[in-house]
């Protein structure tokens, strides 16, 4: 007999390259303004200030290859990022031990209802309405760190209908992956199944229905997403 009064929702699972099983997702943390050039284009000082994070929902992750243009927005932007998936966690994780908790990496997009996010910023309100909507995090297959190691440099890029929109390098991240994990663990108890979106380089911009997005991170391959 189930102890739940209604049927529990299914666990979100991400595909893993070369594996039949999927990676179960618990929480989704996203770092903001983690590339200096993107901070500048968004009107902020690129100096190394303490990092800040917002969250998406596990159900926002979508490996289908399609991005349904969302309701209640006329200005939806693309943001290409590298995703980090954790196999273990804890509190107060030292920087030197942070990568021991990483299962693997993937190409991802942080799709943003920029008009709604802008409204929330002006009112000093949370960003979820602009960030944590359905299908807002297209993601490619996870690549285990046991196969590729831990990428700390390499091109990050995004093309829209074949035209290059975003281009940067993982080495340009203000806060590196071990530092992000360590910092988050000071405020949250991290756990297996948590994922982190690591920020986007400059060049973010709007998408329209019918657009083809081609996102890539060196060593992780390319992800194609159709805006429908």
From TrEMBL:
Record-annotated Fumarylacetoacetase-like C-terminal domain positions: 28-228
One GO MF term attached to the UniProt entry: acetylpyruvate hydrolase activity
Keywords assigned by UniProt, alphabetized: Hydrolase, Metal-binding, Pyruvate
UniProt entry tagged with the keyword Hydrolase: yes
InterPro entries: Fumarylacetoacetase-like_C, Fumarylacetoacetase_C_sf
KW Metal-binding (keyword) present: yes
Name this protein carries in UniProt: Fumarylpyruvate hydrolase
